[in-house]
Design the sequence.
């Protein structure tokens, strides 16, 4: 009888989704100590991704913490096939698009880390159904970048390590519940969609708080346009927070390895017969990409996510319905 119970227990544990779940980092570190300059590495990353079939949407210089002499760059990329596979899971899935590679310096040289689809898609799209697809995409990105950049090829899971997509604790919850709807038009006709897209873009470009429009990802064939926005001082502060507990005399600004967390998404999409403008809850987004900074770091900077979200909302809807 005891043996039968043990066998049944083993079978139940083996069948448990939690026991089978793989642990993935929010980011994957792809290359360490690249032999070229940060500009040359950034260019090589773009070339490698293009050769592998990805489209480059933008490449830009990130902000860095005050007093930091190192640089950080981000390459934003996607592909029609990848985007269609993601956004086909519902309008909110657009927050998993596009992908980003961070190229950054520290005391040992130039390094590359990318957003990990195997982790992000579990949080934003679905807990399990895209596992194989997301892992395949992650591996393809790592191969494309490591094959193009001269340096030590690695495949390290970095950032917050999760074995499930759902983010718990204060500021967490189910992803679909934290999408912030900031504007809604009464119908989803093409003219309405185009008017809202143009209005959001105009508002972002007209802002007076130093926010920059990094990319506009046209997925109108799928009923969506994604705008990527960022602000240098905000980035620098975020990287300072991300690296706070890891900082040392040897590595003063380790938070630059989170560069691929930005830009922030503002999305216009058709949903339930309406055209909506949405962004991600500020605290949730910080937890998604910076949770490894620790609870104390979040407690000391509680006002920051709300301030970021408030400025994004203000500029995104400022030119609508004028």
Sequence:
């Amino acid at each position: 009888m005891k043996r039968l119970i043990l066998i049944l227990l083993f079978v139940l544990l083996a069948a448990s989704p939690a026991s089978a779940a793989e642990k993935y980092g929010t980011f994957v570190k792809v290359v360490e100590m690249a032999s070229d300059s940060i500009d040359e590495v950034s260019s090589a990353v773009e070339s490698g991704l293009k050769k592998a079939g990805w489209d480059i949407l933008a490449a830009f210089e990130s902000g860095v913490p005050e007093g930091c002499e190192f640089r950080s760059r981000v390459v934003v990329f996607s592909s029609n096939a990848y985007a269609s596979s993601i956004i086909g899971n519902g309008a909110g899935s657009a927050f998993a698009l596009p992908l980003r590679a961070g190229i950054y310096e520290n005391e040992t040289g130039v390094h590359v880390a990318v957003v990990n689809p195997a982790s992000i898609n579990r949080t934003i799209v679905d807990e399990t159904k895209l596992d194989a697809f997301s892992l395949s995409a992650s591996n393809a990105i790592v191969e494309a970048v490591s094959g193009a950049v001269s340096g030590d090829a690695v495949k390290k899971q970095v950032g917050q390590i999760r074995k499930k997509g759902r983010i718990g604790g204060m500021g967490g919850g189910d992803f679909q519940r934290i999408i912030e709807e900031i504007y809604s038009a009464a119908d989803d006709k093409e003219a309405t969609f185009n008017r809202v897209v143009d209005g959001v873009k105009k508002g972002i470009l007209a802002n007076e708080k130093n926010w920059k429009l990094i990319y506009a990802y046209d997925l109108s064939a799928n009923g969506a346009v994604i705008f990527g926005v960022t602000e240098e001082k905000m980035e620098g502060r975020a990287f300072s927070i991300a690296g706070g507990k890891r900082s040392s005399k040897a590595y003063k600004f380790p938070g630059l390895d989170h560069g691929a967390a930005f830009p922030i998404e503002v999305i216009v999409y058709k949903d339930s017969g309406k055209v909506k403008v949405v962004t991600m809850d500020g605290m949730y987004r910080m937890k998604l990409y910076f949770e490894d900074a620790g609870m104390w770091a979040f407690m000391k900077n509680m006002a920051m996510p709300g301030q970021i979200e408030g400025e994004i909302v203000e500029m995104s809807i400022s030119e609508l319905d004028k």
